[in-house]
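Why predict the complex rather than its parts? Because the way molecules touch one another can change local conformation, and only a joint prediction can capture that. The input here totals 258 residues.
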Amino acid sequence: MTENRTVLELDATFDNLLPVKDAVSAAARAAGYPDIQLLRIEVVVEEAYLNVVHHAYHDRGGEVVIVCELNDQNLFQVTIMDHADYFEIPSVSSRSGDDSIDVRQPGGCGMTLIRSMTKSAVWRREDDRNMLSMVFDKTAVPRKFV
Amino acid sequence: MELRERREDGVLVLEMSGKMDAIATPDFTAWFDSRISAGEYRFAVDCSGLSYLTSAGLRGVLTVAKQIRAKQGRLIFCGLSGVVLEVFEASGFLTILETCPTLPDARAAIQG
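Output of the joint prediction:
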């Protein structure tokens, strides 16, 4: 991370998922984020990145730019930008979680996880790009089974 | 992600470790496919070594849970903590799946 900023420009493919998660995690670690938060950041980045791969670009690939930086509150922020058609990721509904196993269908939890593990997740359309900016707290209390 | 299996008192125990993401989840579903095809329907899944699971992992878990339910089997997840527990909770999986704090609890529930 140069001057607290890492920029990744790559093709939005499933094969790039692991390099993306590794690079973002390394940037968060360099920013002083603890291991437990690196795990949450990896979960959120997988959800957001695969939304671009599968839903914005429909698995046909396309340019994606990922910027990792500290925001003005000194919190780690990841912004994912793509040039696909208008695709408002936060408009995807979250699961209510009260379905039974018989009626619950696989899928649809990605946005729920993004919302629950970020301090904020803001989508905007700018310069013909979809931009999703996600901010992470530096600490969060680990959960134990209760 | 690593998957280790062992049999304890008639219950097939799957011990998971690492990260259950979109890359690793097919290994999880393939493992269950092969065991269910072999006639196994009672499973305890120990998640105490798991770092996290993503929505791809949740899809795999739900798919497997539905398969086992269709066979009138039992599937209990145990050892949930940290980010794994958060993901189960946020997604509502804590209310639709059977969970226990520890592996002995899960084993006892299945044998019950």
